[in-house]
Amino acid sequence: MRKLAGPAALLLSGLLLAGCASTGSGAGQEPSAATDPTAIVDIQVGLEPTSLDVRTTSGAGLVQLMRGNVYEGLVGMSEDLEITPALASKWEVSEDGLVYTFTVRDGVSFHDGTPMTVEDVVGSLTASSAEGSLNPDAKRMTAVASIEATDDSTVVITLSRRDINFLDTLTTAAGFVTPQTEGLDLATTANGTGPYTVDQWNKGATISLVPAENYWGDKPANGGVVFHYITDPTTAATALRGGEIDMIAGTTPETAALFADDEAFTVTEGASTSWMTLGFNNAFEPLSDERVRKAIRQAINKEELVEVIGGGAITVGSMTVPSDPWYVDTTGSAPYDPEEAKALLKEAGQENLSLTLTVSNTYDTIITEFIAAELAKVGVEVKIDQVEFATWLDEAFTKKNYELTMVLHVDPSTLSYYGNPAYYWNYDNAEVQQLVADANTAASEADRDKNLSEVAKIVAEDSASDWLYSPQTLIVADSALGGYPTSRIANNLALSGITVAE
């Protein structure tokens, strides 16, 4: 961590001490330790955004940076997945679950000093819910029928059907409130309402956040955060040892083991809702044949793959993990069996199959090389096409121009995307679509979870994708740090509570 010096430090210290938030239940030093509110925290993360525009850009790297840190919605989400007040101080939901009435906070400003109004809220949500919206989470807003401001502090959202996950949706990019300024360019800068504002983006290296002077809530417990985009675990470990960074936010068991017995560092393991997914283009022949998809799944030894990547992960049989309330064990849906894989390929007339695996260069080649080697054993030749992440987003994710692909999904709601035939997997199953619709309109969480459990079973039996493993959240940090989240950090990395011991 770095410390500000001179008059600026004294001024910033005064501002922060006047409204410093408690550090909560995060990891690190004892809560009673004296902390330095001017210290800059340097954090290693792996995935750099391709753009800063949360209105149009997909990617876990952008979510991790912006969500709750730079941009906010009417409501927020805690590390424990609880809905919390944000730009709305309170809300009410009608008995039929169709009308949401939000009381918008007074005295909130965007980072450029412009007051936030109910018109900004209405405009932002109207844009993300509009037909043809480019918002990465627009697909979650399809139940919205109308959005209106009934006075200067009240926004009413009416749904066309019950959506039990609607408040969750408002914590995503679809719910972020941005200024309704015509022609606003947010690709390389940001203008939110959160506790931090973007100070500088050195593309390919770092993004710096500094505390927002006009933030409406508790000021950050630190003097700013710098994200360092380092993809190589060895390089990250060296940077941590050398004091260039203070935290590795998600690493391998091998790297974590290097610091386990060193009192100068703290290693924590937390819950994860991430899946390393081998995606099949279900509309591409012969991957449109369930036998071929299942053969690919049965050809890959997931237990061995977990060992190859150094452990710290669990095998899963569908897009659900044990911490999900709708979890169901589907690991037996396509057990490792190379001989059965060969038989399925022969039955499908695909004994000499050749496929291209398109993957972002942000992922370790050891994974793709393992997949290619495993599939070669059953007669499937795999060509690995490693591309820039921006290219992957455009070609594979958006245009669906791929055969096989691999990506780490981090959103707990991703299971429901199998109910959207337009999603990049091109998976079209009417029963799944109905179950997802029923889950979304369920009157209770129990009913929702029952429907989603059925979805997990069906997509596993259909081999709609392959789920290679679910990585656990491993964090290594300087022991002077405290108050940082330890679970689900891939899509909810709250920064304002991070403290630095003096």
* Strand residue content: 15-25%
| Share of helix, binned | 25-40%
User: Please, what is the CATH homologous superfamily of the largest domain?
Assistant: Dipeptide-binding Protein, Domain 3
Distance between the termini: 11 Å
Q: Quickly give the structural class.
A: alpha+beta
What is the CATH-assigned architecture of the largest domain?
Roll
Which CATH class of the largest domain?
Alpha Beta
Question: Averaged pLDDT, please?
Answer: 91
User: Largest sheet at a glance?
Assistant: 8 strands, mixed
Structure summary, number of beta strands: 23
Radius of gyration: 23 Å
Into how many domains do the coordinates divide? Answer: 3
Uncertain runs = 4-25
What is the approximate shape? globular
| Count of DSSP-assigned helices | 13
CATH fold field value of the largest domain:
Dipeptide-binding Protein, domain 3
Description:
By secondary structure, this protein is of the alpha+beta class. The chain has 3 domains: 71-171, Dipeptide-binding Protein, domain 1 (Alpha-Beta Complex); 196-270 and 474-501, Periplasmic binding protein-like II (D-Maltodextrin-Binding Protein, domain 2), CATH 3.40.190.10; 275-471, Dipeptide-binding Protein, Domain 3 (Dipeptide-binding Protein, domain 3, Roll), CATH 3.10.105.10. Helices cover 25% and strands 24% of the residues. The protein has 13 helices and 23 strands. It has helices spanning 7-18, 60-66, 118-129, 166-169, 233-241, 253-257, 290-299, 302-308, 338-347, 365-376, 389-398, 430-440, 445-461, and strands at residues 2-3, 27-28, 39-45, 75-77, 83-85, 88-93, 99-104, 144-151, 154-159, 196-202, 206-211, 224-229, 247-249, 265-270, 275-280, 313-314, 354-360, 381-387, 404-409, 465-471, 473-478, 481-484, 499-500. Strands 1, 3, 10, 11, 12, 13, 14 and 21 form an 8-stranded mixed β-sheet that branches. A 6-stranded mixed β-sheet has the order 16-20-15-19-17-18, with helices on both faces. A hairpin with a 5-residue loop joins strand 4 (75-77) and strand 5. Helix 12 packs antiparallel against helix 13 (445-461). The longest helix is centred in the C-terminal third of the chain and has 17 residues, at 445-461. It is globular. The model is unreliable at 4-25 (pLDDT under 50). It is found in: Cell membrane.
